[in-house]
Amino acid sequence: MINKLVPSPEAALADVPDGATVMIHGFGTAGMPSKLIDALIAQGARELTIVNNNAGNGDTGLAALIKARRVRKILCSFPRQADSWHFDAQYRSGEIELELVPQGTLAERIRAAGAGIGAFFTPTAYGTKLAEGKETRRIGDRDYVLEYPINADYALIKADRADRWGNLTYRKSARNFGPIMAAAARTTVVQVRETVELGELDPEVIVTPGIFVKRIVKH
Amino acid sequence: MRKLDRKQMAARVARDIPEGAYVNLGIGLPTLVADYLPSGREIILHSENGILGIGPKPPDVEVDEDLINAGKEPVTLLTGGCYFHHADSFAMIRGRHLDFAVLGAFQVSVLGDLANWHTGAPDAIPAVGGAMDLAVGAKQVLVMMELLTRDGKSKIVERCSYPLTGARCVNRIYTDLAVIDVKPDGLHVVDMVEGLSFDELQRLTGVRLNRLATAA
Questions:
Q1: Is the pLDDT reported for residue B216 higher than 50?
Q2: Mean of the per-residue pLDDT values for chain B?
Q3: Do A122 and B49 touch (CB under 8 A)?
Q4: Does A195 touch chain B (CB under 8 A)?
Q5: How high is the pLDDT of residue B215?
Q6: Over residues A129-143, mean pLDDT
Q7: Which pLDDT score is estimated for B120?
Q8: Which of A98, A108, A129 sits opposite B87 (nearest CB)?
Q9: Which of A70, A88, A132, A200 falls 20 to 30 Å from B82 in CA-CA distance?
């Protein structure tokens, strides 16, 4: 019998090694898997590369992971916010490396990783600082920049409902990066509001099929 | 001469958005446009974080932390609206499905180059968000900004001194003094605030402007 439910966030993240690349779902705090992040902080893995749209808000969630000095590098589109003080301080002191990626390129690089795509050409950022040093090509009458997938060891996702096969539904705009990160990581760990019996999720509305999910934690 | 205030600028942009348009409003000043869209028109607002059909701000008691816009402010969903993931959201942007993107700017050049993400200051932490995708992807890129900086310099320039968001991507510039189209043969003044002469506008911007053929 397939059962992807694990008893606790700690059990779900026990094997994360130092130096892992970890995708963290969420746009600001919508969709951010706070329980899993707290467990990752307690677990102690260091020198992490984090993929998220932002670089932490306030003092909890991703901001707390940064505050605990577990993050070596972050890939994101919008680090600077009114409440990103933990990132700001470590960026200025040189403790955290930043790879700034336009938001659509970030999403497509994550999607490409999950879909087995080797690279893709995008018009975004052509002729700007963020394309400096990158391969470009003119296709038809437009110029494009070559971008590569972002693969990850782990993805930490927050979803709304799950069954034991790992099928997921999300809630409102908290869906954001969840479905593409779930596919892009080798080990996808999901915290959900509710677990349900097989068959209770309408097959027509399952957003992330269970094939992309390894572990489920109810919080 | 009476400059338009921020609300009047938003109303001026809103007037030009037609029935049936799919529109992304950038963070900050452009977000105000939503409050002035004519109530008789069905216009669908898009948000980078996976929403089509953004409705008005909810009352405090109905705020839902899972329903926010790209500026991370609470919003509502119109009847008929829907949610989708980030890769689909940017397929809508990059794939030329959005009719309009309304963006703020530090500078716009006479060629329609846009600078709005980074001042280039060495101690500034850069943040780009979805601006570069919107700049290359929307069918029409509308910029909304005050014409002059605080110290009186024109933000419409021969060549942007700030790092670019996109090259030759702006179609129209809405300012507090005039509305100006960017065309292959240069900048064309669409309208000006009352009491402002073409010559005075030309002097303030310092780049070559063309009178609209139909202007009185």
A1: no
A2: 96
A3: no
A4: no
A5: 47
A6: 97
A7: 85
A8: A108
A9: A200
Q: Is A19 on the interface with B (CB under 8 A)?
A: no
Q: Which of B42, B48, B62, B194 is catalytic?
A: B48
pTM above 0.95, yes or no: yes
Residue ranges covered by each domain of chain B: 6-211
Please answer whether residues A64 and A38 qualify as being in contact, where contact means their C-beta atoms are separated by less than 8 angstroms: yes
pLDDT digits (tens, 9 = 90+) for A26-68: 998 899 999 999 999 999 999 999 999 999 999 999 999 999 9
Tokens of B140: 């029409």
By Cβ distance, the residue of A30, A98, A170 closest to B65 is A30
* Interface touch A77/B128, C-beta < 8 Å: yes
The DSSP bridge partners found for residue A156 are A24, A189
Chain A residues whose beta carbon lies within 8 Å of the beta carbon of residue B129: 77-78, 102-103
Nearest CA in chain B to A28: B72
The nearest alpha carbon in chain B to A121 belongs to B94
Q: Which residues pair with A139 in a beta bridge?
A: A142
Q: Kindly tell me the number of DSSP H helices and DSSP E strands found in chain A.
A: 6, 11
- What is the CB neighbour count within 10 angstroms for residue B50? 30
Please, is B185 exposed, middle or buried when counting C-beta atoms within 10 Å of its C-beta (0-12, 13-18, 19+)? exposed
8 Å CB contact of B83 and A172: yes
ipTM here: 0.97
Cα distances (Å, whole numbers) of residue B21 to A126, A203, B18, B45, B94? 27, 32, 6, 8, 16
What would the pLDDT profile of B166-183 be if each residue is shown by its tens digit? 999 999 999 999 999 999
The architecture that CATH gives domain B6-211 is: 3-Layer(aba) Sandwich (3.40)
For A80, the closest of B64, B77, B125 (CB atoms) is B125
Question: How many Cβ atoms from other residues are within 10 Å of residue B212's Cβ?
Answer: 16
Over residues B83-136, the pLDDT tens digits come to 999 999 999 999 999 999 999 999 999 999 999 999 888 888 999 999 999 999
> Is the dihedral angle over the CA atoms A16, A17, A18, A24 positive or is it negative?
negative
Nearest CA in chain A to B70: A27
Domains within chain A, CATH numbers bracketed = 17-100+151-218 (3.40.1080.10)
